[in-house]
Amino acid sequence: MAAGRERAARLLRQLQRAACRCPSHCHTYSQVPERPTLGNTDYAFEMAISNIRYGEGVTKEIGMDLQNLGARRVCLMTDKNLSQLPPVNAVLNSLAKYGINFQMYDNVRVEPTDQSFLDAIKFAKKGEFDAYVAVGGGSVIDTCKAANLYASSPTSDFLDYVNAPIGKGKAVTVPLKPLIAVPTTAGTGSETTGVAIFDFKELKVKTGIASRAIKPTLGIIDPLHTLSMPERIVANSGFDVLCHALESYTALPYNMRSPCPSNPINRPAYQGSNPISDVWALHALRIVAKYLKRAIRNPEDREARANMHLASAFAGIGFGNAGVHLCHGMSYPISGLVKTYKPKDYNVDHSLVPHGLSVVLTSPAVFAFTAQIRPERHLEAAEILGADIRTARIKDAGFILADTLRKFLFDLNVDDGLAAIGYSKADIPALVKGTLPQERVTKLSPRPQTEEDLSALFEASMKLY
């Protein structure tokens, strides 16, 4: 009898030793020691995008969306030109149909400034809105993001959330109100991202706010809205898509970016190229190669314009998480230091270098420079854009991509470099000075750059053809 009890006790002890150590089933679980992080580079990336809805005429659903959100006081943001056009009318009709109470702010500036942001923020704070709708291009959507942020954090100083080193770059921890973005251009992809860009007039340079917290709740992509876009707006918007795709695909890999954040809330929105962003960037690039020229040349080509509208969102998903690098970093002073240039098809009362144009003018020089690192990606991009690479040497990848881009731009009647929009070699020091604070993006270049490198890139971009 005693021997039987001993055998039973021994069996129970064996079962206990073999028991599951899963924390859900066992109270004796102990934390596994953390594996030390090697070096100071990141080891992870994350994807953050808005919900996206696509379809011809889908704008008519926006009143129902606001009803479903329980919105009682809505801020509708747009600009003066768009306020008279079909995209805004479609939104107004839906708001009226579903009895949505709203106030319209149509004073958004094309290529916003810190002051135009502040004006919109003042309107938003006064209105005490519980939802936002942005109808327009990147300027409108970015302005609405900023208005939502600062109205939700009314005691914050404007520079608190602005990217360092110009601002403090604080993490956004306050809850924001729902924001529905209705893009009317096929370019910025702002409906998918947590980025808002503006001209900081005091320094004559572009900067912005970057946080996953400010991305729209929903992006409504209605290809009908692109049918009213004039030729050069289609072109310049498309060049932004082109560079979003190229830059995010060739960016520094996420696991080579430093520093590694001590808390995931501090992981930047722009993290470096990664396997998921790569898929979206390449897909967007293929659409650009197939449809951009058609979309520019024929406003009745609904297939081309609809596909470019999607490509803008696809590229936005890519660069919104991977980031961009030198083309964008160098574009900010190109826009910020504009002299007298006024582009065709833009109904504005101020000098303006459209964002997509400011980005693409440096692209041949930039990719000839960056192709020393990851040349196979540069060569792949050149092939997608039409280059014959069957006999190409990998060491020539940068020159091949640069030449492919020059031909692409020449075919689309793009201005012949920075000199054609009012700049000269005498402006290069100021352009370099304006690029240096853009480290949020320039540090994602696969190849590090010095001030001398930047000077050479600007000089090489003075004339393209």
* Widest sheet: strand ordering: 1-8-5-4-2-3
User: What's the β-strand tally?
Assistant: 8
Major sheet characteristics: 6 strands, parallel
Alpha-carbon Rg, integer: 25 Å
Q: What structural class do the secondary elements suggest? A: alpha/beta
Q: Mean pLDDT, as a whole number?
A: 92
| % residues in beta strands | 5-15%
Helix content: 40-55%
What is the 3D shape? globular
Output the helix-strand order. Answer: HEHEHEHEHEEEEHHHHHHHHHHH
What features would you describe in this structure?
The chain is an alpha/beta fold and 465 residues long. It contains 16 helices and 8 strands. The chain has helices at residues 2-17, 62-69, 86-97, 114-127, 138-152, 231-250, 275-297, 302-322, 326-336, 355-360, 363-370, 375-384, 397-411, 428-435, 439-442, 451-460, and strands spanning 51-54, 74-77, 102-105, 131-136, 179-183, 195-200, 205-210, 218-221. The strands form 2 sheets. It has a 6-stranded parallel β-sheet with strand order 1-8-5-4-2-3, sandwiched between helices. Strands 6-7 form a two-stranded antiparallel ribbon. Helix 2 crosses helix 3 (86-97) and helix 12 (375-384) packs parallel to helix 13 (397-411). The protein is globular, with a radius of gyration of 25 Å. The N and C termini lie far apart (100 Å). Residues 23-30 have low confidence and may be disordered.
Characteristic terms for this protein:
465 residues, alpha/beta, 6-stranded parallel β-sheet, two-stranded antiparallel ribbon, 8 strands, globular
